[in-house]
Amino acid sequence: MSTTTNVDTTVGTNRWYLSAAPIVRVLVHLCVPMAAAMIVGAIYNVINAGFIGSQHNTAFLAAITFGTPLLGLVMGVGGVFGAGGGALISRMLGASEHEPAKADEIKHVASFAFWGAVIAGAVLGGVGLLLLHPLVSLLGANASAVPATSAYIAVILAFVPVLAAAFCLEQLLRAEGAARQVMIGLIGSTIANVVFDILFILVLHWGVAGAALSMGLANFGVVLYFVIWLQRHSEHASLAPRWFTLSPNVLKPVFGVGVGELLQSAFLIVTSLVLNNLAVIYGDSALAAMGVAVRIAQVPEFLVMGVTIGVLPLLAYSYGKGDRSRLTSALRASAITVGGIMLVFSTAVFVFREQVFSAFSSDHSVLAIGVIVLTAQLVSAIFNGFAGLITSLFQATGRSVPAIVMSVGQGVVFIPIVILGNIWFGLAGIIWSLTVSEGIVFLVGVVMWLASRPAINRGLAEGSPERAEEVLEPAEA
Fold it and tell me: Which of 215, 298, 308, 465 has the lowest CB atom count within 10 Å?
């Protein structure tokens, strides 16, 4: 009996946040746990590098670097089903306030998203293991790094279904407003990862294979936690295979939003490779300066991403419900929060930029370049923050084409800009290429947002027929 009460209380609280809670309180509930989990994850990346570095084997560090694109691809696969399925579930939850039948369809969406991620992960992992040696070469491992890279990649590939499922489930829980539970799962996974690292790397000396195994087991634990939580606390979602469906009503909206996540991950890999290959021409100082500047700029970027990603379920729920006032309020509050974070952090870092950078490097050449890179990174982060919010709006409202354009836009624009910038302006062209690219993508997003407003208004009217006249009025004006 007590279990049922806990279930109802948890579900009711999360639903209340999406449906009726004050906007500021909702943003705190949804976005703070998201940002906290991302920051903890970033801290773990540093700790993990320290564990590997303690083995004093350069090939180990190289193996992790070579494996990064593969992890990005795995996250993209999980994002196809997680981002698309999560946005659709939130919209259906909102619509169920007027159409109770919509709630029954959520089981089909959740089951398809989860098992789709597992199956796609299994296929990717299996193909990768069959083509392990060509894959290691494709990732750029040289002769000395091939054994370590092969060991690291092989273990990662064995856990691809688990990694894809973990990333998918994280977004399915957030779709129901369970942001705190997601944070608990991710932080718990990070702690488990550290414990496994100590055991496998420092005690058993399994090297990078131990690091990969730590990651796989930690994510397996978070998958179990998320699955158990959904089974006990979710009122509508179900992961049971019997609810799995290939209905176009599920596939089209899920892939419409989710494919953008996969393409974005693919372009991020390509842009990173292009940037690194161009920057290496200018020596170690340029590479070091970029590396430090990126790490400093990650702090406000993670906070902003916590807002832009965290608010997506609220936007989708409000849209599905047909609540224009709540959708508008959520967008306005999110935009003010994003602007506030970037204004405070960017101003503080810019004023004390030399002191901040000096904490990471005492090399004057690195410092001179790094201050310029950091300035460019902070400006880029401002554009990226607002572009991310626009992307979340498109995903929340099911605007698949604009969402895909925003997801791949940076990569498509960045590659020619950085190449031409290098030719015309040298290192300065490389440094500012990301800023220019982000600015262009943001402007494209604003134009598409303005063009999409009539369609979004019509969708709101369909979600709330009794307010159709009120909703359509701004579009007509």
Answer: 465
Question: How is residue 248 written in tokens?
Answer: 């176009």
Distance in angstroms (rounded) separating the CA atoms of residues 242 and 114: 12
Give yes or no for a contact between 132 and 150, defined as CB atoms under 8 angstroms apart.
Answer: yes
Tell how far CA 360 is from the center of its chain: 27
d(CA 456, CA 324): 10
Among left, alpha and beta (phi > 0; psi -120 to 50; other), residue 369 is: alpha
Structure token pair of residue 237:
């979602």
- End-to-end, the C-alpha distance of the chain in Å comes to 54
Rounded Cα distance, 128 and 425, in Å = 40
Structure-model confidence comparison of residues 122 and 65, the more confident one:
122
Write out the two tokens for 365.
């050449």
Ranges of H-type helices in 98-247? 101-130, 132-138, 146-158, 160-175, 179-197, 207-233
Give the confidence band of 4 by pLDDT, cuts at 50, 70, 90: very low
In order, the DSSP letters of 236-249 are S----GGG----HH
Reply yes or no on whether the pLDDT at 165 is more than 90: yes
CA distances from 263 to 275, 324, 408 (A): 18, 30, 6
Three-state DSSP string of 378-422: HHHHHHHHHHHHHHHHHHHCCCHHHHHHHHHHHHHHHHHHHHHHH
In the block, tokens 């940076």 appear at 410
* Predicted local confidence at residue 464, as pLDDT: 55
Residue 238 backbone phi and psi in degrees, to 5? -145, 140
The mean pLDDT of the chain is 82
Rounded to 10 deg, the angle between the 364-396 and 324-351 helix axes is: 180
**Pairwise pLDDT comparison (373 vs 160), residue with the higher score:** 160
Instruction: For residue range 72-101, list pLDDT tens digits in order.
Output: 788 888 888 988 898 889 888 888 877 776
pLDDT one-digit tens code per residue, 133-142: 888 887 777 7
At 348, list the tokens.
């503080």
User: 100 exposed, middle or buried (CB, 10 Å; 0-12, 13-18, 19+)?
Assistant: exposed
For residue 153, give the amino acid letter: I
Helix axis angle, 160-175 to 101-130, nearest 10° = 160
Residue entry with tokens 């607002």: 386
Q: Which residues of 302-338 are buried (b: 16+ CB within 10 A; e: fewer)?
A: bbbbbbbbbbbbbbbbbbbbbbbebbebbbebbbebb
